[in-house]
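Marked as duplicate of an earlier ticket. Keeping the data here for the record.
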Amino acid sequence: KQFMAESMVTDTSPATRQLKDIIDSLTDLGYEGPLLQERHLEKCIIEGVESVEFIHFVTWLSNDISKMLKLEESITTGLGPDDSNVFKLEVKGFLSALQCPYRFLTKDLDVLLKLEHRYAILEYLTSELQATKLIVLDQKEDSKVDEQQPLILAHDATISVLQGLQCSQPPAHVTLEMITSKILDKVQTLAQSKPNYFGTPLFDRNLNSEQWRIIEDLNMKLEEEFRTRRQLLLTRLEVTLQAFTWKKETADRVEKVIKSEYKTGLQPKCSIPISHLIAARTDLAHQSKTSNISVLKNTHTTIHKYKMGNVCTLVL
């Protein structure tokens, strides 16, 4: 009798372990209903689709997941034992839409017929709901960071302007309006004392909000095209560097270049905001080519002694 009592207390059967896992998941989800009681939950699972509570339980778990992940598939609320066939089909369709890894839950004609299947479904749905809530929470945190990003950029840009104008660092209690007023006063003073200090702006038109929006859209498209071109050039650079690794004498040098700041600092994405357009001056429109003789005169190095030989094209 003592052995039997100990066996009952330390029951480690798969069903018992699954019951405890489901209850632990429900507790983590903040569920406070009667299904937290092990015997009540076990009775509900054994009855299956004959139990209204089981149907409502599966419906609640599934629809919460569907709502958070914005899935088209869901389970109709208010179904009862009389609608068991409809309920089974909807459960099977929802599990398929959720890409459930358990094939026996998505392939069997009656996914709720076997007791072990009902345990597996509840264990899967509770753990999936936990994971979904974590994913949604992470996305909210990321969105908060994205919302703060413009403020961070504005702060960095303001500090850069103050440094460029050789202004002292403002105290923490100073408002943005006070900083802007200080910047304007400094700019006006410089403009009066040194007429050509800031140069001639490259863009000097007044645009309305709709025109600025169009320019912003164009800038985003140009950024995407620039990213593609930059990625192509970086890939070419990578291939060129790898071509020198075949020789032992140059392999070590190539590795140093790959690990250097010169290589790691080159990124495909390069964000150029509209503020750069407003701040640009006319000298930006006059750029000398790197192959220009006047430029090479000042940038000539020993690398220019090497010339690429004739390239043979093989046509297949």
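See parent ticket for discussion. The first helix runs from residue 2 to 9.
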